[in-house]
Design a protein that fits this description.
The protein is of the alpha+beta class. Helices cover 48% and strands 15% of the residues. It is built from four helices and three strands, in the order αβααββα. The protein has a three-stranded antiparallel β-sheet. Helix 1 (3-11) packs across helix 2 (19-29).
Length: 125
């Protein structure tokens, strides 16, 4: 699932939204990291609808323009949940791996028996 699709589905969790509303919520949820252009948004919406993850909720005319509201389907909610769990597991694995391989100040001495420590005379202890 693309990052854009993930955030579009997330934007639709609580209520149906029209295109511009989705763009605003995605910007907020991603803290500005995902900025959907309208062409990209409608490509994502078409793909999600074709996959049965969202569907048209209603159409309204606002100031002479047609607004289409989309809503999350049950399949979309399940796909979003599965993707969120996959991403969380990946983040946990990365965090654990980084913590396990983080150099420590009190780690084992390198071959030769000396440890270089900044700020000490001669650089060894």
């Amino acid at each position: 699932m693309t990052q854009a699709a993930f955030f579009v589905l997330t934007a639709l969790v609580d209520q149906p939204r029209h295109g511009y509303g989705i763009v605003q919520v995605v910007d907020e949820l991603s803290e500005g990291h995902v900025q959907l252009r309208i062409g990209t948004l409608y490509g994502v919406l078409d793909r999600l609808a074709a996959d049965g993850l969202i569907e048209l909720d209603r159409e309204e005319v606002q100031q002479g323009r047609l607004r289409r509201y989309y809503r999350l389907t049950d399949a979309g909610g399940a796909a979003l949940s599965a993707e969120a769990q996959r991403m969380a597991a990946g983040a946990r694995a990365a965090t654990e791996r980084m913590a396990a391989h983080r150099p420590s100040d009190a780690g084992p001495a390198p071959a030769g028996g000396s440890v270089r420590r900044p700020g000490l005379a001669g650089g060894t202890a």
